[in-house]
Q: What sequence folds into this?
């Protein structure tokens, strides 16, 4: 099988399977959360039922440009995953993800709703908080493996990236609390229904538009778990098992953090994210740079 065929198969598999995997992840999240709170919880398939229900509801459109921005958001999220699972450049992958988030912000602000605008402002603040760590993650992989290419990282027979990037890994998991919209940094939209902004950035999305946002997050979550797997995968087949275990443990820890922490203000989110980036991420990169210069 040629490299081009493998890339096409990987991309098609992501486009087709990611929403199902992402929906199941959301269902597992809700089930574990309910158990932690002493409740039985909904079915693991409840997220699919919710989206199907949303698709059947009436869609109230504030303006047509809002639909365009949301669809562009979905397209760029899918494009991000396709680049990643197709094995392309990590810097390009993260740039595409940032572009996707910008269109979500534009969709929210185009409604001129005070709650949506406040959510969009906080979303931008979140991007400023986590983007440095995202950039350091790409740089860390380059220093550890000598390449930005995802397919070259996963086919390398050298040391597992996690061994050389423990600080980068911890920093990336830290910002996943922001990316997955978990406490204590659930600021731009209310993952739990007790926030002063109602639904924040998604306040003015209804029916099919809100379904688009949910499906986009399913795609995005699968991609983010793929980045976690990248720390634990190389050319050896058994590293896939290690990567799946790492994803499961990481996802559980994030759910645990979500249910054991109160939501913080954006100032603390920004401060903690940058401190983590500088102390843990930058220190790891500095050590790698010194090590490679000495080799």
A:
């Amino acid at each position: 099988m040629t490299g081009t065929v493998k890339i096409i198969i990987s991309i098609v598999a992501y486009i087709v399977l990611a929403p199902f995997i992402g929906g199941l992840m959301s269902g597992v999240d809700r089930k574990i959360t309910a158990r932690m709170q002493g409740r039985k919880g909904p079915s693991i398939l409840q997220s699919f039922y919710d989206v199907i229900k949303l698709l059947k509801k009436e869609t109230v459109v504030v303006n047509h440009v809002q639909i365009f921005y949301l669809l562009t958001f979905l397209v760029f999220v899918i494009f991000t995953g396709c680049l990643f699972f197709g094995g392309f450049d990590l810097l390009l992958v993260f740039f595409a993800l940032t572009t996707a988030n910008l269109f979500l912000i534009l969709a929210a602000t185009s409604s001129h709703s005070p709650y949506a605008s406040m959510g969009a402002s906080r979303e931008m603040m979140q991007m400023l908080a986590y983007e440095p760590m995202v950039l350091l993650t790409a740089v860390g992989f380059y220093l550890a493996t000598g390449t930005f290419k995802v397919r070259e990282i996963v086919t390398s027979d050298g040391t597992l990236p996690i061994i050389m990037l423990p600080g980068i890994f911890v920093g990336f998991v830290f910002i996943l609390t922001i990316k997955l919209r978990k406490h204590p940094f659930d600021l731009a939209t209310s993952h739990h229904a007790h926030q002063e902004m109602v639904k924040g950035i998604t306040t003015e999305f209804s029916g099919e538009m809100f379904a688009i946002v949910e499906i986009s997050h399913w795609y995005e979550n699968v991609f983010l778990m793929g980045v976690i797997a990248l720390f634990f995968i190389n050319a050896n087949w058994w590293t896939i098992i290690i990567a799946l275990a790492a994803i499961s443990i990481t996802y559980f820890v994030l759910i645990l953090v979500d249910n054991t922490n109160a939501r913080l203000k954006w100032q603390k989110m920004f401060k903690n994210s940058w401190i983590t980036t500088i102390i843990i991420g930058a220190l790891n990169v500095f050590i790698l740079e010194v090590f490679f210069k000495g080799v």
Observations:
- The longest helix spans residues 3-36.
- DSSP finds eleven helices and no strands in the chain.
